[in-house]
Amino acid sequence: MAFKKQELFGLSVDELRHIAQEMGMPAFRGRQLADWMYKQHVWDFSAMTDIAKKDAALFAEKCTVLPKDLTVLAEKTSRDKLTSKLLVRLADGNSIETVGMQHGYGYSVCASSQVGCAMGCVFCASTLEGCVRNLTAAEMLSQVALFQKKLAQTGGRVGNIIIMGSGEPLLNYAETVKFMHLVHQPELYNLGYRNITLSTCGIVDGIENLQREDIPINLAISLHAPTDALREQLMPVNKKYKIQDIMSAADNYAKATGRRVTYEYILIKGVNDAPDTAKKLAKLLSGRLAAVNIIPVNPVKAKGWQRPDSRDVADFGMVLQDRGITATIRKEMGSDIRAACGQLKAAHTPGDIF
Ligand code: SAH
Fold first, then answer.
1. Is residue 89 within 8 Å of 33, Cβ to Cβ?
2. Dihedral of CA 36/40/43/46: which sign?
3. 13 closest CA partner among 157, 186, 152
4. Which residue out of 124, 131, 201, 341 is catalytically annotated?
5. To pair with 143 at 20 to 30 A between CA atoms, which of 47, 149, 288, 347?
6. How far, in Å, from the CA of 229 to the mean position of ligand 1?
7. Nearest atom (ligand 1) to Cα of 163
8. Per-residue pLDDT tens for 95-110?
9. Is 232 a catalytic residue?
């Protein structure tokens, strides 16, 4: 029977100390491991210079550090150098994309939560081939680690995480929550919960469960339409979870955390961009602890949706603002390398997306 190595990446210092002791080593090896893996971004035991050679050899024999087993198959940087997209091959041969963005306020990583996605939103590339599998917390953490390692070379650090890559995080609930806890730990990446945003297509029971976790992360809801009839045409998930139910779960979340919920609204020409639709949206959100993030649809090959003219985008935002709804138009980043919203795919098709 093949011997399965113990995966260390994603374990806390206490867990690492325990493993070291079980292997007959002093407990402090646990802290050393954590420091190398999470602070120095060294994932090769033989390069962990303060670990005795024989212990390093024993670790190498019995354990692995996940990011070392991942292969960055390709890396693309946008013309303005602000956005990078990595195509990462996972240990089992599946691949995911992950994106890093330099904003004025810091560096954000847009993490994927699944290989592909099962939601079937008609405007999104991530769902073209369905959901292959959930990512583990360690695989999500590795996406942060890859960018953190790059940034550390110039003294930078990951400041924000948005779980907005491919996949529906609330359908990979346990691992996503674990990931958020891990990334928050001081001995890992020390990210404040307020610097984490989770985006969902509106899995109501997932939102309710998330509220019970009692961690003050930001919640973003991909709304995209103010009525069930229209939303259903764009997002099959709306057949199961209706807008009113999503809104009341989101309201409760906002109340419990005191944090405004962001409603993402992609604008598709001739589909959901009419001033009248904006009025309906304003009515729906009126009186709620909410803000709208307007995203002109990004082109996805094989879909053919069009982006409204920039005047219509601005007008849509004005209708909301005139009615007292906070609305911003999302700054588009990385569309020249297909790293923008809705453009991330699971599989690597040579000559296609990368
Ligand atoms: N499943 C989650 C996480 C994915 S987030 C969710 O639905 O929220 C990806 C964000 O990009 C969502 O708001 C999604 O609706 C949006 N998006 C998808 N396709 C897009 C496209 N072609 N143009 C712009 N935004 C898109």
1. no
2. negative
3. 186
4. 341
5. 47
6. 19
7. 3
8. 999 999 999 999 999 9
9. no
